[in-house]
Structure formats: structure tokens, C-alpha cells
Amino acid sequence: MSLKINDTAPNFNADTTHGKINFYDWSKEKWVVIFSHPKNFTPVCTTELGNLQKIKKSFDERNVKILGLSVDPVEDHEKWSKDIEDVTGYKPDYPLIGDKNLEISKIYGMLPASTSGDYKNRTAVDNQTVRSVFIISPDKKIKLILSYPMSTGRNFDEIVRVIDSLKLTASHKVATPANWKKGDNVIIVPAVKDDEAKKLFPDGWKTVKPYIREVKHQDLEK
Questions:
Q1: Which residues is 170 bridged to in the sheet?
Q2: What pLDDT, on the 0 to 100 scale, is given for residue 219?
Q3: 172-221 maps to which CATH number?
Q4: Tens digits of residue pLDDT in 14-66
Q5: Which of 105, 107, 135, 151 could bond to 111 as cystine, CB 3.0-4.6 Å?
Q6: Within 13 A of 29's CA, how many CA atoms are on the CB side?
């Protein structure tokens, strides 16, 4: 199964460190970040889980839920969490899925559907493609997919930046340029013609090129 941007995120039932969940019921009408790991007790993943807990307030402030996944049972997640706290100073308090039968990894396209077996006979290298981030909107659409190699830790500040962009562009007919950060100017989408733009952006815009019309972020919040 190959998931793409704007596909509906597959629903699933899972065992987590917070008990059994149904993904759709658990996520409710909120934005969700799912991030996955090939194995517990791996060095890069250990630093990632702790770093995400460190900045979790940034996600809470944006009304975004976090859901982790690792190809190991939940009872091992509890042991791993102690190591994460020892190494980073932060113990994850967001739920971690135990995907020991590879079910969720497969329905999200992180492992081939033909993959068989469970976690016991698989190494982190066997599961190295289970290193993805999915951002899912309240209507259960996939809005971002990022996959990382095992050797490169994820930049969660970038995930927060993308969330700011996605939430802004979901409610206004704008797009965000390269390296955009919250508060920077945004771009009116090309589908909005000037007559409509005058109604949507009464304070006007700066025309850089006929197809690049910049407006101030703060003008959208009036």
C-alpha cells in the first residue's frame, strides 16, 4: 500500500503505553503527528523520543496530538522509556504503539504488505523503513509524509514549523514560501484571482511577480 498526500489515513486498533486505542476515536477532531521507529533501544531513536517530549508543549499549544510507534511490544516500551529518561532527561508521556505484529507498519506502507512474522526475528535493519513521520489533519487526511534514514535524527522543530504552515493554509487561501516561519509573509495561492483577493485581503498585497503576491501574516489574524 502506497500512501500519498491527501489520502485518507488508515484507521487501526492498537496496544499502546496508554492502553488500547482505536486511532480515529483517539484522534477525535485534532491534528495528529505519528512518528515511527524500527526497534526499541536504538541510539538515534532514543534521542528522538526524549527530544520530542522536551518540546511537547509546542504541540500541546497547537492542539496537536502525538502518537509514537515502534516494532516491539508495549512492555518493552516501558523499559525503554526509563533509558530515554536517563539519556535525555525526559520520559515520554505521549502514547507509544507496540507494533509487534507489523500490522500498522504495513498498512501505512512502511513495510511491504508481504512482510511476514513478528518483531522477535527482525532487527532494526530489517525494519529500517519504519522511520516515517505522518501529519494527519482533523478530517483524517495525510498532509505530510517524511522518511528518515536510521543514521539521521529527526528535526522536530521542522515538524512544528510545518504544522504552523498547514494549519494556516487550511483556513486561508495562502501558501508559505521557502524557510517560512510563523509571522513571516505568506503568498496568495494562484487560484485566487485579483478580484477575489481584494475581498479576502482588503489591506492589499505586494506583487513580486504576477504569480507571487505576498501578504503579511498578521493581516490574516485581524
A1: none
A2: 83
A3: 3.30.1020.10
A4: 999 999 999 999 999 999 999 999 999 999 999 999 999 999 999 999 999 99
A5: 105
A6: 0
In terms of pTM, does the model score above 0.85? yes
In terms of C-beta density within 10 A (0-12 exposed, 13-18 middle, 19 or more buried), how is residue 10 classed? middle
- CATH superfamily ID and name for 13-153: Glutaredoxin (3.40.30.10)
**Where are the alpha helices (H) located in 20-135, listed in sequence order?**
23-27, 43-54, 56-61, 74-88, 103-107
- Quote the cell numbers at residue 178: 521557502
Q: Do 154 and 133 form a contact (C-beta atoms < 8 A)?
A: yes
Cβ atoms of residues 51 and 17 within 8 Å: no
As given in the structure block, the three cell numbers for residue 119 are 518483531
Are the C-beta atoms of residues 39 and 72 closer than 8 Å to each other?
A: yes
Question: Strand 174-175 and strand 186-188: pairing?
Answer: antiparallel
Catalytic-labelled residue, pool 45, 52, 102, 187:
45
Q: In the chain, which residues have pLDDT < 50?
A: none
Q: Is 108 in contact with 75 (CB distance < 8 Å)?
A: no
Q: So what's the pLDDT on residue 1?
A: 56
Per-residue confidence (pLDDT) for residue 176, from 0 to 100: 98
CATH 3.30.1020.10 domain span(s) along the chain: 172-221
Q: Is 45 a residue of the active site?
A: yes
The span from the CA of 94 to the CA of 86, in Å, is 17
